[in-house]
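cron nightly-structures :: item 1 of 1
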Amino acid sequence: MAAVGPAVSIFGSARVAPGHRWYEFTVALSRQLSEAGFAVISGGGPGIMEAANRGAFRGPSPSIGLNIQLPHEQVSNAYQDISLDFRHFFARKVTFAKYASAFVAVPGGLGTLDELIEVLVLIQTRMGRPIPVILTDSKFWKGLLDWMREQLVGSGLISPEDLDLIQVVDHPEAAVEAIFDFYETRGFEPTTDERETLLYL
């Protein structure tokens, strides 16, 4: 992984089949990211993970799967240029966070929510470097974001600017543009301070 260039971690449901709009959205997004020079990292399994690897596999940049051993659901997909196997979630999550220049969450379940909150906590606490955090399908995420504003911000449990870490898009092109906009005034490589911070993940 250390030799991989800028990469985007994509998360989403393992239960979404080819032909579903979220699956096809992810294939299109990951293909565009690959053609723009980003490696694409997924969990290596079925559903949105497969879609992410599938789109990237068709492009020039690496398609990476961080596979986990689970009693059900997780079967490695066939679209991985680099395939790593993990036994423990914590080591896998460190790899997702450490090598990502951006995080994209397609609609998903508890695993997707877990990864989303994890990356937001790392950025909020400055234990991870600031990167774009992008949610796709505004209708799907609206209820969660409204609850976060009303309950978390409203109760003083997080700061209003914490929600500024999140961007919501409805088109693959908008996600790619948001990533480039974020890095417009700086390079994709972590700064020296950010590299030191990442050593403690």
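cron nightly-structures :: done
The chain has one domain: 7-138+164-198.
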